[in-house]
Specification:
20% of the residues lie in helices and 28% in strands. The chain is α/β, with parallel strands linked by helices.
Length: 127
Amino acid sequence: MSVQLNHTIVWCRDKQKSSAFLTEMLGLPGPAPFGPMLVVQLANGVSLDFYERSGEITRQHYAFLIDDDEFDQVCARLQGRSLQHWADPAQHYPGEINRHFGGRGLYFEDPDGHLLEVITRPYGSLE
């Protein structure tokens, strides 16, 4: 079986603001327009397609596997913007990071309240 995730839509109120936030926080190239969307391409070929809508945005969770240097850079960007982060998705441990599977991880919110996660080890990793 060769099923792979290709893309997902990230519903937002302002695609410029939301896609810029993600690319700046993760150090990614800027988004590319495609129809009514702005597309952020990830290293593994999956894209996040930012699509505007009015009204309530259902909060989603997006997790990104990054290396240790990138993790340090994300932490510095969060601190530089005075943005809150948590060690857990329930947001019970503010200002902390987790160390699951010998790596590091944290959660933070984007402008629409989506919960973004960065981890340095995949869940279930034995390395």
